[in-house]
Amino acid sequence: KKHVIVEKPMALSTLDADKMIETSHRNNVKLAVCHQNRFNKPIQQLRHAYEEGRFGKLVNGTASIRWNRGMDYYRQAPWRGTWELDGGTLMNQCIHDIDLLQWMMGGEVESVYAQTGTFLRDIEGEDFGSVIIRFKNGAIGMIEGSACVYPKNLEETLSIFGEKGTVVIGGLAVNKIETWRFEDGKDSEDEILKAQEGDPDTV
Asked: Is the per-residue pLDDT at 200 higher than 80?
């Protein structure tokens, strides 16, 4: 028997995900989902600040994935853009950011409301989706996921707002701190931003 690492997303339905978990338990093997963005240096810094309670009461968090995926991308493989094997922009392009938002905002979700549409791409799934999440701790999360940004990828940004802190991590792959402000004064935004200058991870 071997432990299993699966690529994102874990599954396209909770039924399939539950079957995977049950199978791993039955066979006494570990099942892990690859969410490598958790190991980006800025994300690790953000997580450390969260675990230290520097934000105080969490208010809201936003994940903005403003990308471009043209029909040439979808034509590269027959599964792309299909409901059965892809799941659309939110499940494919945005799943890492959904993971990060949930990880930073307290985890457990109380309710979800979404609007999606297929505006520009000739695919089954959505090419744009907007989601509002109420977490069980009372905080609110927002997700904007687009494959329609002209003419190319614009940003992938995670913003976390709390009673005593604000952090925005952007760049093309949530790999660059853009805003870092905390009431406790343990560090300054200037020194945090300067420390990442020339860091290959933020280029």
From this structure: no
15: Cβ contacts below 8 Å, ≥ 6 apart? none
Q: What pLDDT is stored for residue 199 in this prediction?
A: 65
- pLDDT the model gives residue 86: 92
CA distance readout (Å), 73 to 48, 70, 116, 171: 36, 5, 20, 22
pLDDT at 173: 87
Residue 24: count other Cβ atoms within 10 Å of its Cβ: 15
- Which domains, ranges and CATH numbers included, belong to the chain? 1-34 (no CATH), 37-202 (3.30.360.10)
d(CA 174, CA 65): 10
Check pLDDT > 90 for residue 104.
Answer: yes
d(CA 194, CA 16): 45
Instruction: Please choose, from the candidates 69, 119, 120, the residue with its C-alpha nearest in 3D space to the C-alpha of residue 94.
Output: 69
Burial-class residue 13 by CB neighbours within 10 Å (0-12, 13-18, 19+).
exposed
C-alpha dist (Å) from residue 87 to 21, 41, 111, 186: 20, 29, 20, 42
Q: Hey, what's the torsion of the CAs at 68, 91, 116, 98, to 10 degrees?
A: -90
Helix 95-104 and helix 41-51: axis angle, to 10°?
Answer: 30
